[in-house]
């Protein structure tokens, strides 16, 4: 079922089903759900890769218009450097491992839809 999830709504349904059947989810399953959610958000923006380079979050993308829209929406926290790469510019905050996923999810979250 997990591999067939292709929308945040389906992921929410699957998570609810798992909680109903098994109770609280173990941390590895929670992490898997969070990563899948991030993948689904990245697909909306046509981002094919998200990785770290030193302290920078780097997006490799396919659609320049979508990236420009995301950069405008982000308050210029996203800097487009070429036709396929953009960097999250956020030197003022510490992007520790625990907050990194939330930071990227918040940036990619469509307006008006809760995390």
Which characteristics define this entry?
single chain; 115 residues; alpha+beta; 4-stranded antiparallel beta sheet; 4 helices; elongated
Describe the structure.
- The chain contains four helices and four strands.
- It has helices at residues 8-22, 27-44, 64-73, 97-108, and strands at 47-53, 56-61, 78-80, 85-88.
- The protein has a four-stranded antiparallel β-sheet with strand order 1-2-4-3.
- A hairpin with a 2-residue loop joins β1 and β2.
- It is elongated.
Arithmetic mean pLDDT: 86
Instruction: Give a short account of the largest sheet.
Output: 4 strands, antiparallel
Rg is 15 Å
How large a portion of the residues is in β-strands, by DSSP E?
15-25%
List low-pLDDT spans: none
Please give a quick description of this structure.
The protein has a four-stranded antiparallel β-sheet. It has helices at 8-22, 27-44, 64-73, 97-108; strands at residues 47-53, 56-61, 78-80, 85-88.
């Amino acid at each position: 079922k997990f591999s067939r999830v292709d929308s945040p709504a389906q992921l929410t349904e699957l998570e609810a089903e798992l909680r109903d059947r098994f109770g609280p989810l173990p941390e590895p399953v929670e992490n898997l759900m969070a990563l899948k959610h991030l993948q689904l958000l990245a697909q909306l923006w046509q981002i094919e890769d998200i990785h770290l380079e030193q302290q920078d979050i780097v997006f490799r993308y396919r659609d320049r218009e979508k990236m420009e829209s995301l950069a405008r929406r982000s308050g210029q926290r996203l800097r487009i450097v070429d036709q396929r790469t953009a960097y999250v510019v956020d030197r003022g905050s510490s992007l520790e491992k625990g907050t990194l996923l939330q930071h990227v999810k918040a940036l990619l979250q469509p307006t008006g839809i809760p995390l």
